[in-house]
Design brief:
The chain has about 500 residues and is of the alpha/beta class. The protein folds into 2 domains: about 400 residues, ANL, N-terminal domain (Rossmann fold, 3-Layer(aba) Sandwich), CATH 3.40.50.12780; about 100 residues, GMP Synthetase, Chain A, domain 3 (2-Layer Sandwich), CATH 3.30.300. Helices cover about 30% and strands about 25% of the residues. The chain has 14 helices and 25 strands. The strands form 6 sheets. Strands 2-1-10-9-11-12-13-14-15 form a 9-stranded mixed sheet. Strands 4-3-5-6 form a 4-stranded parallel sheet, sandwiched between helices. It has a 4-stranded antiparallel sheet with strand order 16-17-19-20, with no helix packed on it. Helix 1 packs across helix 2. The chain is globular, with a radius of gyration of 23 Å.
Length: about 500
């Protein structure tokens, strides 16, 4: 292998196949199906052949509208291995958002699960360009007409490998461009941070269209030679059984999952004895849940934090329990981090400011959005996270709030404006303002304050039904408050945080 091969996803795949060809890379929790490292590398070349036959070439975008499965792994990794740009589409997106992503991404091919085919074809009919549709069973191990591709050049470390869309404060998704180097660097940083090796196996319950699952559970095992066990989705009732039966040594979850696991019974200690640690990310973990989980299950939690823009984790607590700090997202991991003020100057330890990150894991920028890209970086190249917090004297970071007004429900970003605009379509609603309300299961639930039009009557039940139709059940507000007016600042902008006390009761 050439010296630079570890700088790419392509290189990580080829290296692990050469080093341990017969070792398992991924297995299903629901069947005997598995993929060893040699089969993965061969499968990537065969996936590339199928994508080429559908019209994709290196540098082209391939969208993937599929739930978790071994075939989904093959498609995501095969596209990147071939130097294509993979675009995993969030299955929780509303139709308008999904249509926007498929149009904006300039995808040449869409890989779609059978149950999504009709909806996706209808969306593609509206975008005004020819897109090939490849229908694939997420649980399969071969694509229709699959054949090994003609030899393709290994992609450059600086080639874009992943285009993942994330909601902004305006509700308009932004396409984060991550390079082969970004992804390979963080896969290796994760492996080193958690001291992972070839004997380690992770239970991969998060959806692969989420940056956490994509980088932590799919890519990191390629760097350390470990493996993953993949259920079709998270099930609190089967979680411990799946982990035990597949021999997992670590688990990767979000706070919402921890909340649901705490509602169930602890498994017999022998069923979880092999699990070395639990990794939590995507949202702040309430300290009481942290303590309760460790007490009930006897498994230590390593709290981490990252962004789509940083290829998942950029902060992590140490693996050693004695060195972790409860309530902290940890120290910078695989990158540099600092806290800056409004003038972009670094502030002393203990002072609150905006967290900023610089390193090999930081995105190239936002796709076709130079303005947003420029606004996200300081002149000397630090990514502005939009998170408020401070660093202590030991180098541990603490997040105290968000500059951005995103609602983070179960690790998914929801733009308040999207909620506002949907409710404003109801004829009785004059004004609406959504805000993230603390929730023991989801971290945050959507709350909304409503100002009705004069002379109009509308109850909560009617708005719940309307919201479910307009937004889908996941994004529809869980809490409603009717008010006579909304608090505003000097510029007339609604001050959302001042609404939170209304939901305290």
């Amino acid at each position: 292998m050439a010296a630079g091969d570890s700088d790419t996803v392509h290189g990580l795949i080829e290296q692990v196949a050469a080093r341990q060809p017969g070792a398992v890379y991924a297995l299903s929790t629901e069947s005997e199906a598995r993929i060893d490292c040699a089969a993965l590398a061969l499968g990537c070349r065969r996936v590339a052949g199928a994508l080429q036959a559908a019209g994709a070439r290196p540098g082209d975008t391939v969208s993937v509208v599929m739930p978790n499965g071994l075939q989904t792994l093959r498609l995501l990794l095969g596209a990147m291995h071939a130097g294509m740009v993979v675009n995993p589409v969030n299955l929780l997106s509303q139709p308008e958002q999904m249509r926007y992503v498929l149009a904006h991404s300039d995808c040449r091919v869409v890989c779609v699960a059978p149950e999504w085919e009709e909806r996706v074809r209808a969306m593609l009919a509206d975008i005004g360009r020819l897109v090939s549709v490849l229908v694939a069973d997420p649980d399969g191990l071969a694509l229709p007409g699959e054949a090994e591709a003609n030899a393709l050049p290994a992609p450059s470390p600086d080639a874009v490998a992943l285009l993942m869309y994330t909601s902004g404060t305006t509700g308009q998704p932004k396409g984060v461009m991550l390079t082969q180097r970004n992804l390979a660097a963080n896969a290796q940083a994760i492996s080193a941070e958690h001291e992972l090796g070839s004997a380690d196996r992770v239970l991969a319950v998060l959806p692969l269209y989420h940056i956490n699952a994509f980088c932590v559970t799919m890519l990191a095992p390629l760097a350390h030679g470990g493996s993953l066990a993949m259920p079709p989705k998270f099930s609190a009732g089967r979680f411990w059984e799946q982990a035990a039966q597949t021999g997992c040594s670590w688990i990767n979850v979000v706070p919402t999952m921890i909340s649901y696991l705490l509602e169930g019974e602890a498994p017999a200690r022998e069923r979880s004895a092999a699990i070395r640690f639990c990794r939590s990310a995507s949202a702040a973990l309430p300290p009481e849940h942290h303590r309760a989980f460790e007490r009930l299950f006897g498994i230590g939690i390593v709290e981490t934090m990252g962004l789509t823009e940083t290829a998942a984790p950029s902060f992590s607590n140490p693996l050693d329990p004695a060195r972790r700090k409860l309530g902290s997202v940890g120290r910078a991991s695989g990158c540099e981090a600092r806290v800056i003020d409004a003038a972009l100057a670094e502030v002393p330890d203990g002072s609150t400011g905006e967290l900023a990150i610089r390193g090999p894991n930081v995105m190239r920028g936002y796709y076709k959005n130079e303005e947003a890209t420029r606004a996200s970086f300081t002149p000397d190249g630090w990514l502005r996270t939009g998170d408020l917090g401070h660093r202590d004297a030991d180098g541990f970071f603490f997040v105290t709030g968000r500059i951005k007004e995103l609602i983070i429900k179960g690790g998914e970003n929801i733009a308040p404006r999207e909620i506002d605009e949907a409710l404003l379509r109801h004829p009785a609603v004059l004004e609406a303002a959504a805000v993230g309300v603390p929730d023991r299961h989801y971290g945050q639930e959507v709350g909304v304050c409503i100002v009705l039009r004069e002379g109009c009557a509308c109850g909560e039940d009617e708005l719940r039904a309307f919201s479910a139709e307009a937004l889908g059940r996941y994004k529809a507000p869980g809490h409603y408050r009717f008010v006579t007016d909304l608090p505003r600042g000097p510029s007339g902008k609604v001050q959302r945080l001042k609404l939170l006390p209304l939901f305290a009761a």
